[in-house]
Amino acid sequence: MIEIHELHKEYAGAEKPYLALRGMSFTIKRGEFCAIMGPSGCGKSTLLNILGLLDHPSSGDYRLEGVSCAELGDAERTRLRREKIGFVFQSFNLLPRLSALDNVCLPMVYADVARAPRRERAAELLERVGLSSKAAQSPLQLSGGERQRVGIARALANRPALLLADEPTGNLDSRTSGEVLELFESLSKDGMTLLLVTHDPVVAKRAHRVLHVQDGLIAGPEGPR
Amino acid sequence: MRIGEAARTGFLEILCHKMRSFLSFSSVAFGVAAILYTFAQVNHTYEGVQKKTALSGPGRMEIHQKYSRKQNNLHGLSRGLTLGDAEAIRKNMPELYMVAPTRSGYGNFNYGAFKTDLGLRGITLEWTKRDWAYTLRGRFINQQDIDQAARVCVVTEPGGWSDENKRPSWWGRWYNDVDDFKSFIKRTDLLGRTVRVNNQLLTVVGILQEPPIDKDPRGGWGSSQGGELTVPITTLQRYFSSDSGDRYVPESINNISVDTGSEKIFLAAKHRIENLLDSRHRGEKDFEIEDLQEEIEKKLQVMRKNAIAVLSIGLVAILSGGIGIMNVTLATIFSRIREIGIRRALGATRFDILVQFVIEAMLLGTCGGVAGIGLGLAGLRYLVEDGTEKIQSLHWWHFPATLAISAAVGFLFSLYPAHTAARLDPVEALRYE
């Protein structure tokens, strides 16, 4: 599913370029539920941005379902992102002016899904995350856990092959984060490939596999447990 | 469809920032109002000219008698403009639609205890062919009256203003305020009565009611002043000629109004008349031919200049409105950088982002256009003389045209900011607080 080989990413620093990733390599198989852990500033977010095709590596190769993505242009990366990748954010990143339902619809708007099937699918997804009763509400009226569930429903809208989550429970209390994690587990059971960045060992425990990132490299025990 | 969604989002954004949106579209609104005003003004004038041309004829010229002989270095070989001249023109050029000689004079009007000085106008029947904007009571002068120099007259009743209480301007009040004859004729029905003018008795056979001054289709360019009493030209010559002038010609007239009936033969007819009169006047240039078409053309030219001035003010206002829209679009983008990042992460292309902001700006522009049309119509209705008529002379397509202009302004001025938004790096945008 995901193959990464010798991935480098450097940012222009004040004096010398700052290396965020220094030759990272790993593989993630289809249907895997994988957690990425590591201290702040170790390159987790950079990795996630590259995996999510929001950013491109300075060197190295990234293959998503066999397609080499390192050299793709913006339009192609946007298309792949739209079709194959769903994002779940720490701070939910819902658009406050739109209702929960319209937020879930948003990725399908950009995928040119017609209005009726779009709303139907969004309603289904909201039902799946247990929020059908709040479809018409603004995200501002929802609790944190509910917001994140809307966020997950939105990420699933275009039936992505890969779900990327950046600290999805970072802003939630333990009870609601439990709910969200259960949702992730059920998705994983359905065969979704999940990649989850977290600080929380409790969260990481739920994953099939944990990647420890340190100083831009994969460190420590790796592989399925 | 994505455009529909973008429009919906844009509409929400405009509603959520009412003040900001209002400020940015108001100058577009002023520009649109100015442009609409120009359209209305130009069309109204144009219609007025058309009406006037229809009434006064397509090929009008006025032949005037020139009076100061010495100044023009004339030797008195010519008898001046006479009824014979008019008859000669008529006889030589039967294709002309109208050859109307008039002779004017003043008379001391006397009826009962009422006395005043009035303008007299002597005419032939040709006079009725053009510029007839009157309502007639009784009968008009007929050929028999003219042949016999009958002692009959037709009284012209001034039209005043259509709304006497709401006179449009100070000058109207000034030249129309104290009019003895007007109030006299309002009180007294002269039809069928005998009046005394310069100690001659004339029978009033008809009353000509003039249209109100502000509704007069002759538009003030016609010769509606003077001539409160219309008499057969022969009557005027026989009974009202003053013999105290420096030279007395019994059959002299002041003016011949000619309408060729079509523009095509106008210049040729003018030449022929000039030659004919030259030979009849033994080469003395004691007449002049005034081309009414030229007059109208001059007025139209002034009008066009004014229209261009107002139009350019409107354009400047719209341009500054465009800059306002640009500013607001930049501000909007700045406050929604994170949203741009989110949308990009969810699969929006750069083009999607561009379209979204452009459409929002076009909506703003169109709102400005709608407001401007409202403003323009209200301004025309309440601030401008003859506003309702001017509104009526607008064509339906002026409204979509002004809307299109304002939407186009939104489009043009949002391209650059929207382009900036589309170029944002999604990672940076997502991280933006």
- Per CATH, the superfamily of chain A is P-loop containing nucleotide triphosphate hydrolases
Overall number of strands of chain B: 10
Number of domains of chain B: 2
Give the quaternary arrangement of the chains: heterodimer
Q: List unreliable stretches of 5+ residues of chain A.
A: none
Indicate the low-confidence ranges of chain B by residue numbers: none
Strand order of the largest sheet of chain A: 6-7-8-3-9-10
Mean pLDDT of chain B: 83
Give the count of structural domains of chain A.
1
Instruction: Give the count of helical stretches of chain B.
Output: 14
Strand content of chain A: 25-35%
CATH class of chain A: Alpha Beta
Range of helix content of chain A: 25-40%
- The count of helical stretches of chain A stands at 7
- The sequence of SSEs of chain A as H and E is EEEHEEHEHHHEHEHEE
Query: How is the main sheet of chain B built?
Result: 6 strands, mixed, barrel
Share of helix among residues of chain B? 40-55%
Topology, number of strands of chain A? 10
Query: Largest interface, by Cβ-Cβ below 8 angstroms: which chains and how many residues each?
Result: A-B, 26 and 24 residues
Please tell me about this protein's structure.
The complex is a heterodimer of chains A (about 220) and B (about 425). Chain A is α/β, with parallel strands linked by helices and about 220 residues long. Chain A has a single domain, classed as P-loop containing nucleotide triphosphate hydrolases (Rossmann fold, 3-Layer(aba) Sandwich). In chain A, the strands form two sheets. Chain A has a six-stranded mixed beta sheet with strand order 6-7-8-3-9-10, sandwiched between helices. In chain A, helix 3 crosses helix 4 and helix 5 runs parallel beside helix 6. The mean pLDDT of chain A is about 90. Chain B has about 425 residues and is of the alpha+beta class. Chain B folds into two domains: about 180 residues, no CATH class; about 220 residues, no CATH class. Chain B contains 14 helices and ten strands. In chain B, strand 2 and strand 3 form a beta hairpin. The longest helix of chain B is centred in the last third of the chain and has 44 residues. The radius of gyration of chain B is 33 Å and the shape is elongated. At the A-B interface, helix 2 and helix 3 of A face helix 1, helix 10 and helix 14 of B.
